[in-house]
Amino acid sequence: MADEKHVELGLFLKKKRASLTPEQAGLPLGKKRKVTGLRREEVAELANLSVDWYIRLEQGRAVQPSVEVLLALSNALQLNRKERDYLFNLAEQRLPEEMPDPITVSPGLQKFLDSQNPYPAYITDKEWNIVGWNKAAALVFGDYSLMTPLQRNTIWRAFMDPSMKDLLDNWEGHSKLRVSQLRMAHSQFPANPERLALIDELCGQSSIFDLWWNQQFIIGTPEGKKLLHHPVVGDIRLDYLSFQTEEYRDATVTVHLASDSDSKRKLDTLFEGS
Questions:
Q1: What pLDDT, in 10s, does the model give residues 131-171?
Q2: Regarding beta strands 121-124 and 130-133, do their DSSP bridges make them parallel or antiparallel, or are they unpaired?
Q3: By C-alpha distance, which of 55, 44, 47 is closest to 10?
Q4: Full DSSP string of 82-135
Q5: pLDDT, tens only, 178-188
Q6: Where do transmembrane segments lie in this chain (predicted)?
Q7: Burial status of residue 90 (CB atoms within 10 A of its CB: 0-12, 13-18, 19 or more)
Q8: Other beta carbons within 10 Å of 92
Q9: What residues have CB less than 8 Å from 221, skipping those under 6 apart?
Q10: CA distances (Å), 157 to each of 128, 133, 147, in order?
Q11: pTM higher than the cut 0.70
């Protein structure tokens, strides 16, 4: 007997099949069609499945599609990212981790970052690389345009750039949080080559990282506030918030705001004097 998720999965597949035209799927029009969208046998053929098995799936029968089948259906039905996530959730399968394409910040997103000046704002990808920033972020945290891609990795920089210990009041809490986040991501997808290379590099170059990594703790300072000891304007207290952007998968936008009037004045001075 089918459960609610099987039924929902079948209805979702049927809805997506009806919304996709033969032209969109790259199929010939042929004779006059009696159905809206694609036929069941066409979806099965596009996904390289048996028609009977696909029909059972669409009818909400208690069948369990594999990850490979779900990916094939996602491609056949041309699902977008959210639709694919939804399909995998209904099938109670974990979407395999993908190696993301390099993020190129769009003019619109860069305009948003620039509009936050004199408050620092930047974008990080899923591997904690800074991939976009505004002028204020470069003035407060360092000129990212002069850094190599590895130096723009916030986890690498926390342990390998001595200036971060001087800048961050709670460097230990901040760095332990980064180790915890890295360990959590690594436990979910341990075969990521970029992440493995970063872990090997840090274990070999930083005795502190190596110690904390092998202690396997999940601790650190909570997100949301920073006290910085800036070399030019002195102490700056910041509140910050982070959110996902629909433009790029797993990219995070972080915007900092002054916690008090003195910090606001210092950010203004830093920005205006640059």
A1: 999 999 999 999 999 999 999 999 999 999 999 999 999 99
A2: antiparallel
A3: 55
A4: HHHHHHHHHTT-PPPP--PPPP---HHHHHHHHHTTTS-EEEE-TTSBEEEE-H
A5: 998 898 888 77
A6: none
A7: buried
A8: 11
A9: 170, 173, 174, 176, 177
A10: 10, 16, 10
A11: no
Written as one letter, the residue type at 51 is V
For 2, the 3-state DSSP assignment is coil
Beta strand 234-244 pairing with 130-133:
unpaired
Burial letters for 205-226: b for 16+ Cβ neighbours within 10 Å, e otherwise? ebeebeebbeeeeeebbeeeeb
The gap between the terminal CA atoms of the chain, to the nearest Å, is 68
Cα–Cα distance between 108 and 251 in angstroms, integer?
15
Q: What structural domains does the chain harbor?
A: 4-90 (1.10.260.40), 107-272 (3.30.450.180)
Helix (H) or strand (E) holding 166, with range, is helix 163-167
DSSP 217-236: ----PPTTEEEEEETTTEEE
Kindly give, in sequence order, each residue whose CB lies less than 8 Å from that of residue 9, ignoring residues fewer than 6 positions away. Answer: 57, 60, 87, 90, 91
| Residue 185 CA from chain centroid, whole number | 11
Question: Residue 255's beta-bridge partner residues?
Answer: 121, 241
Tell me what the mean pLDDT of segment 5-32 comes to.
85
